[in-house]
Design brief:
2 domains; membrane; two-stranded antiparallel ribbon; MCP_dom_sf; mainly alpha; mitochondrion; transmembrane; mitochondrion inner membrane
Length: 360
């Protein structure tokens, strides 16, 4: 039986990158139309001011969009439900409108997802290898995916935080690249390079616990059901485990998500003056929590629980199922190559022995 972490058959980092890319691409293609429709319905139900921003996520990354006459949401069309929204958007704006926001997803979420998943796989494998050597065992304790998931997410989020700031500003206002460059230079001048990582703290508080809980729950779910290897590696089983893990992680980390959403929308609404100063200092996490609690009570920190679960669960399921399927594909490929190499080696040995016998 071939073990997943057997060094002879284990997939390479390049193959892991290809699996992560395919997963991110499929996730964005499936989830973006659903989120576009959801936000169109939400936007017509809420009396949003013309200078406000709103946030939506297609399962891989968030998109901050402005409302008003310059927004990509036309207010003259009224939707009477989900299917009506699908039909009218496709008919009046064209089918490609259902994938609004896909380009920034592919440009930023793809590399971020690759760094995240490859880092997780490498950290998990190397940590498990060291642990097995020290304890002389072959199993994987649950703290290993917790550690690997949290660390990998920290690396990915920190690495792409400056790009996230740029993307947020470009989505919230129609700014050119030259205007963004000028504003960022002034931010660095007045606030230093720390200014490029504004909002990183709240992002880490949301994403790092989510990642640790997600991977731990995913591995635990697979172990609890104790399926045969043929079923454990199937697309549907990984899809199920991914949806369970995503739902649990989404529920536990929802308060962090609420705070992060408030901060990111606030960041999109702030003006960066040409002298590098911010219109108003962004509220810190403590002030946002106090404000939410004073206005809505404790339940305010769990606002949007069902929409978040309905969004995160399928996105996590599609992503992990596709990623695991890619890993399985490359593992079979590596196994076949190893068997062919071993067979060639044996044939060479047989020919060599035959030649030696002829000379003797």
């Amino acid at each position: 039986m071939i073990r997943e972490d057997d060094p002879q058959f284990r997939i390479t980092p390049i193959q892991q990158m290809a699996s992560a890319c395919s997963g991110a691409l499929i996730t964005s293609l499936f989830m973006t139309p659903l989120d576009v429709v959801k936000i169109r319905l939400q936007a017509q139900q809420k009396a949003l001011l013309s200078n406000k921003c709103y946030l939506y996520c297609n399962g891989l990354m968030e998109h901050l969009c402005p409302c008003g006459e310059t927004a990509w949401i036309p207010r003259r069309v009224h939707f009477h439900g989900t299917f009506d929204a699908f039909y009218k958007i496709a008919k009046l704006e064209g089918v490609p409108a259902l994938w609004s926001g896909l380009s920034p997803t592919l440009l930023l979420a793809l590399p971020c997802t690759v760094v995240y998943f490859v880092s997780y796989e490498q950290l998990r494998f190397k940590t498990k290898t060291l642990y097995n050597k020290w304890t002389d065992t072959v199993h994987q304790p649950m703290w290993i995916p917790l550690f690997a998931g949290a660390t990998a997410r920290t690396i990915a989020v920190t690495t792409f935080s400056p790009l996230e700031l740029i993307r947020t500003k470009m989505q919230s206002k129609k700014l050119t690249y030259s205007e963004i460059t000028t504003a960022l230079r002034q931010v660095i001048k007045y606030e230093g390079y720390r200014g490029l990582f504004r909002g990183l703290g709240s992002t880490l508080l949301r994403d790092v616990p989510f990642s640790g809980i997600y991977w731990t729950t995913f591995e635990t779910t697979k172990r609890i059901f104790n399926k045969p290897d043929s079923e454990k590696n199937s697309f549907l089983f990984n899809f199920f485990c991914g949806s369970v893990a995503g739902s649990i992680a989404a529920f536990i980390t929802l308060p962090f998500d609420v705070v992060k959403t408030h901060q990111q929308i606030e960041l999109g609404e702030k003006e960066i003056y040409t002298d590098g100063k911010i219109q108003q200092r962004a509220s810190n996490m403590q002030n946002i929590v106090k404000n939410i609690y004073s206005n809505h009570g404790f339940k305010g920190l769990f606002t949007g629980l069902l929409p978040r679960i309905f969004k995160v669960a399928p996105a996590c399921a599609i992503m992990i199922a596709t990623f695991e399927y890619g890993k399985q594909f490359f593992q079979k490929y590596n196994t076949q190559k190893y068997k062919e190499s071993l067979q060639r080696h044996q044939e060479i040995v047989i020919i060599g022995n035959h030649n030696n016998n002829d000379y003797s």
